[in-house]
């Protein structure tokens, strides 16, 4: 038997920075985040959006260790197509499309990205697309969105707009987010794309609340989290990295099962836990996640 789940990219922390603030843009690349999302959307006022494109491209051209993404303005705005044309290039890993509510929006964005790739001399499909789903309508059509286009690498959950859209109280326990998280996780699995990325936490000074939220997302099958403050990066990476006990147990499971499998058995017990193929597959994913974090 083989594990058919797609492996996550290994990106645990996606840190936003407003593209129109050069000092914040410069600092964001030194925070230890796995990926940087320079923003052209909500963090940039309308009068500065066009000029900010060049700032973002210049920042992405500079040497960096983190993966680099740009969040463009939504398809319902006048800026989206020109945002994509202006920032797409070999300096970028991908683009982030906000407020996605339909498969057609994903396909339209992908077509604009393909045109930008051709203009830049890049292979078609070189740039990833990540779609943020953040409304009741988007959650309702999550299955279609996740399967809309092969360029779509993963979905992300926008909890701020989602709770505003439904007038929900965003509590510490976050039970009000369970349905949306589950819908995105299931939709991603059915479409065969990476697990979705979890929502931001707007209480930027409350690091314990951030940890709780990150653990909630991880338990619901999401992998990685959107961050909006540098102080959130370290706890984010911590939550989405298997700890020593998890790694030790996973290694014991895999090694014991491989010995048993070689002798003709595919079901055993390890530390009082029943182990068969699904448990082994999960253990191997834990080991792979730990290896990516170390690398």
- In sequence order, what are the helices and strands, one letter per element? EHEHEHEHEHHEHHHEHHEEH
Return Rg in Å: 20 Å
Count the helices. How many?
A: 12
Percent of residues in β-strands: 5-15%
Spans of 5+ residues with little confidence (pLDDT < 50)? none
User: How would the global form be characterised?
Assistant: globular
Strands across the major sheet, in which order?
6-5-4-3-2-1-7
Give the end-to-end Cα distance, rounded to a whole number of Å. Answer: 28 Å
What can be said about the biggest beta sheet? 7 strands, parallel
What is the number of beta strands?
9
Output mean pLDDT.
Answer: 92
List the helices and strands and how they pair.
Elements lengths: L12 E6 L3 H7 L6 E5 L9 H13 L5 E5 L8 H8 L6 E4 L5 H18 L7 E6 L2 H5 L1 H5 L5 E6 L1 H7 L12 H14 L15 H13 L5 E3 L5 H7 L4 H19 L5 E3 L2 E3 L1 H18 L1
Parallel strand pairs: 1-2, 1-7, 2-3, 3-4, 4-5, 5-6
Antiparallel strand pairs: 8-9
């Amino acid at each position: 038997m083989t594990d058919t789940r797609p492996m996550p990219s290994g990106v645990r922390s996606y840190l936003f920075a407003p593209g129109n603030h050069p000092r914040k843009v410069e600092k964001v690349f030194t925070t230890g985040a796995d990926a940087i999302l320079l923003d052209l959307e909500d963090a940039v006022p309308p009068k500065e959006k066009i000029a900010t494109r060049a700032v973002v491209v210049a920042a992405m051209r500079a040497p960096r260790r983190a993966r680099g993404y740009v969040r463009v303005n939504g398809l319902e705005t006048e800026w989206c197509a020109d945002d994509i044309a202006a920032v797409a290039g070999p300096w970028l890993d991908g683009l982030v499309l906000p407020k996605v509510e339909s498969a057609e929006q994903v396909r339209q964005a992908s077509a604009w990205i393909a045109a930008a790739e051709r203009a830049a001399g890049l292979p078609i499909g070189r740039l990833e697309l990540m779609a943020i789903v953040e409304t009741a309508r988007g959650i309702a059509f999550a299955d279609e969105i996740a399967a809309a286009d092969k360029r779509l690498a993963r979905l992300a959950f926008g909890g701020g707009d989602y709770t505003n859209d439904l007038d929900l109280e965003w509590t510490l326990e976050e039970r009000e987010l369970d349905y949306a998280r589950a819908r995105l996780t299931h939709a991603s699995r059915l479409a065969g794309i990476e697990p979705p990325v979890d929502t931001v936490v707007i209480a930027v000074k409350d690091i314990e609340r951030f940890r709780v939220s990150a653990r909630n997302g991880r338990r619901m099958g999401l992998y990685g989290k959107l961050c909006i403050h540098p102080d959130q990066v370290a706890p984010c990476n911590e939550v989405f990295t298997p700890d020593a006990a998890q790694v030790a147990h996973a290694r014991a499971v895999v090694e014991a099962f491989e010995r048993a499998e070689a002798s003709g058995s595919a079901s055993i017990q390890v530390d009082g836990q029943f182990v068969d193929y699904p448990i082994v597959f999960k253990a191997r994913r834990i080991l792979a996640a730990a290896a990516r974090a170390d690398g």
